[in-house]
Write a structure and sequence with these properties.
single chain; globular; 2,3-Dihydroxybiphenyl 1,2-Dioxygenase, domain 1; eight-stranded mixed β-sheet; mainly beta
């Protein structure tokens, strides 16, 4: 499976300029593409349904061509969903580390 680095997600409780609100998961994110180090700041609101590990630990994110294929044999901690139009994501756990896979629709 081919995967390419996309960003690092860092949990925070600090509001940041340009945040994007993901209503379906009660979460604010920043655009990692606008950060020179590809950092995505992640700020969950009370009631965010993500597992605690996703709200408290940094994650690494990779783009993949086929999300379902990327998830095979992995410990899925958040199933595929579409947080923004044209992008599907899911989270897995690699030992104690959350990993995000992103599939961009063409």
């Amino acid at each position: 499976m081919k995967q390419e680095f996309h960003h690092i997600g860092m949990p925070t409780n600090k509001q940041r300029p340009g945040e994007i609100y993901l209503e379906s998961v009660k979460l604010y994110i920043t655009d990692a593409g606008k950060n020179p180090h590809r950092i995505e700041w992640v700020r969950p609101e009370p009631g965010c349904p993500f597992p605690e590990v996703m709200k408290t630990k940094a994650h690494i994110a990779y783009t993949v061509e086929n999300l379902e294929e990327a998830l095979k044999g992995k410990q899925v901690i958040w199933p595929p969903f579409e947080p923004l139009p044209g992008v599907r994501v899911a989270f897995v756990l690699d030992e104690e580390a959350p990993v995000e896979y992103l599939e961009f629709k063409s």
